[in-house]
Amino acid sequence: MALRPLFRDIAAALREKEGSGEPIPARDFPRRIRALPSLPEDLRTIRLLPAPAEGGAVLGGGLASAGMTVTAEARPAAGYRFRGWQEAGGLVSPDPVYTFPVQGDRSLTADFFLPQSLPGRDWKSAVLPAGGWSAITWGGGKFVALSGQNQNSLAAYSADGVRWTASTLPAAGPWSSVAWGGGRFLAVQGNPGVSGTGTDAGAVSTDGVHWTKVTLPYASIWTGLTYGDGKFVAVSPTRRAVWSEDGTVWQKSAIQTGGTWHAVAYGAGKFVVVERSSGFAAYSEDLTTWKRTAMPAEAEWCAVTYGGGKFVALAGGAYGVSSRAAYSADGVHWTEAALPEEARWYGVAWGGDCFAAVASARYGSGKVCAYSAGGIQWQRAEMPEEAAWRAVAFGQDRFAAVADKQGTGAYGSSAAAAYSLEA
């Protein structure tokens, strides 16, 4: 029987045998090579190893012929980081995806390591002026925080979340939410006022230092604020939503759903609101039509964010209601996740490839916080001191969080702050 000719290129051999001109994924090479009746010449072995073995996975090794182009990929395990591809004790590439021409046998090691500290897991104390802090965001190269203390017009800003400088808002608070978008910060109030109907006061700033008062269309208790699709959107427990492109000229959004609206986030082409004291959320793609959707359980849903391709919502455990978490790729269909401890979970943010959540104890101050790579499996961590931790944000390379140190709610007279970054 005549032998098939030897091939100098594995890809050519496979394509001739299979009658296909399509690219051949590296993961399919070993199986398809073994199916060849004869092996090509100049075969080379590309050996990939993870170090340490539990540090992650490596993809793309195996047999290849000289002249081919091969891609090696390193995927760190949860908590690990990738330092680079090593060969013969030297660094050949710092990139997790390394593409190179085959010229001979190679033995590459993916160098994984555990950082001494991780964003969302390891926290250090920072110092804020006294003020019962309730909100924080990142934008324009700085963190901006607001005081939730009644009759307080205090704000603060920081480039690193460590050293803070006080600034003044144009009206007394309590200020409840702050967001960045379109080159400016917007702040809104959560003050119920004497009548209990709230306030229409807001403030804008292009630098987070100098603020100008603005007026919202309604007097309400504005508990949620976000920026997305070129618009600021604010919501209140009375099922009111308003939106503005610049924070100064506002439009009303018609509400067709019930529930006590509390927090809002934007992602996947939708604005999503979670409802407190209910088992529902609501979403809108155009701020004209809102649709209600079921959460996994009835709970005190009071925080929501978007990152890593999904929404994540948290419910605080209080008044006999359990703490809960949930995640959703589209803001419509939700799946429950477990938090590591019963607490009053107030804030959640995405950054540095993970979610970070802050809380106070179920009744009073606490140190518990949590982090999650995907919003599904949550790990317990601790803040550097006991406080009623209210809000968290990510900027540059770190999380920053603010609190009312006395643990008596957003109207306390002292403060706490913390930051968390990789080192």
What would you say this structure looks like, in words?
With 423 residues, the chain is mainly β. 4% of the residues lie in helices and 54% in strands. It is built from two helices and 35 strands. The N and C termini lie far apart (65 Å).
User: How much is the radius of gyration in Å?
Assistant: 26 Å
User: Shape, please?
Assistant: elongated
Strand order of the largest sheet: 9-35-34-33-32-31-30
| Structural class by SSE content | mainly beta
Main sheet summary: 7 strands, antiparallel
Q: How much is the average pLDDT?
A: 86
Helical amount: under 10%
Spans of at least 5 consecutive residues with low confidence: 1-8, 406-414
Percent in strands = over 45%
Span of the ends, CA to CA: 65 Å
User: In total, how many beta strands?
Assistant: 35
Q: Give me the number of helical elements.
A: 2
Topology of this structure?
Blueprint (H helix, E strand, L loop, with lengths): L9 H9 L10 H6 L8 E9 L4 E4 L2 E4 L3 E8 L4 E7 L2 E4 L3 E5 L4 E8 L10 E3 L6 E7 L2 E6 L6 E5 L6 E4 L6 E7 L2 E6 L9 E7 L6 E9 L3 E5 L2 E6 L3 E5 L6 E3 L6 E8 L2 E7 L1 E7 L6 E9 L1 E7 L2 E6 L8 E5 L6 E3 L6 E8 L2 E7 L5 E7 L6 E17 L2 E7 L10 E7 L2
Parallel strand pairs: 1-8
Antiparallel strand pairs: 1-3, 2-4, 4-7, 5-6, 5-8, 9-35, 10-11, 11-12, 12-13, 14-15, 15-16, 16-17, 18-19, 19-20, 20-21, 22-23, 23-24, 24-25, 26-27, 27-28, 28-29, 30-31, 31-32, 32-33, 33-34, 34-35
